[in-house]
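Support reply, case 0932

Customer input (verbatim):
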Amino acid sequence: MKRYLPAAVLTSFLLGQIAQGADRQGIYLTFSARDQNRIYYRDLKEEEVALYLDEQPVEIRYFGYQKVSTAFAFIIENSPRTAQFARSMPQMGQNNIVDYVIYGLMEGVFPPLVAMGPVLLAEFYKEFSIVQNFTEDDYLLEDALIRMQPNWTGLDKENIPVARMLGRGVDLLKDRSERRKILVLFTAVVDRESYKNLEEYRQLLRHENIEVYVVSFARRFPTGVGNTFEQRMNTYYFRNLVRETSGHFYISEELAYIDDVFVDLKSRLANSYTLGFYVEAGDEPTEHKVEIKILRGKSDITHRPILIY
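Our regenerated output:
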């Protein structure tokens, strides 16, 4: 959810857990914020951020920036949809999307991230495969990317279970001890099975303290003859998934905007903030309205829209 407001007021509901007592529990909330020039804040102070729960002020007990322990999972679709050729040969017009994802990740993405915590790399087509398990060694991550080979020989380009693969990533992250957990998915387009189960996966993300970023290599405006149902519903699907978290949805038609995508993605991942606060625990989990105010004029804030406790 994004709005431009004079005091940067956003309404949302959150999820996350930091501590529990007999009658209260702790919550972690991750958010990113940028000014009216679209520059991400790198110097926010705790006293500049105000938090309200059900319209009542809440004391911020924890305020973290780049030193927050974080686990990252990068999941890359490596299928005939993203790898049409045995290898990319730009001079002949042969460009594999998966190769450009690999190139983009090798351009300085990992060094600032491993300083915050471990990173996992995985790929998928019909099956999910871990390329490099959680590590804080950026050399191992880059070496794993170099060893990835385009999976261009498969015949099925439609029934690729994107949401189930995202769910595998959630399973790998959800029980980890880091305070912040981030999943980044690179895929071509949503499949029909995933679309049918949209609400199920929305609920999954709503109840897990995991922030999701999706980069989709589909058409921005798939109108007219020749576009499949999945292509037409792709943006709707992923935006509805991602808005359950503090992540972001990017769409890069083929490779037209890939450089801009990586610039913004790197900035968001490296410049997120995390708040910690206590709430009174109820007998039954319910949704609660949350407001965040940043005392810096116009700001664009992105964070999780649902808090259930």
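We compared this against your earlier run and they match. Two observations from our side: Helices lie at 97-105, 110-114, 138-147, 162-174, 192-196, 198-207, 229-242, 258-270. The chain has two domains: 4-63+283-308, 70-270. Please reopen the case if you see a mismatch on your end.
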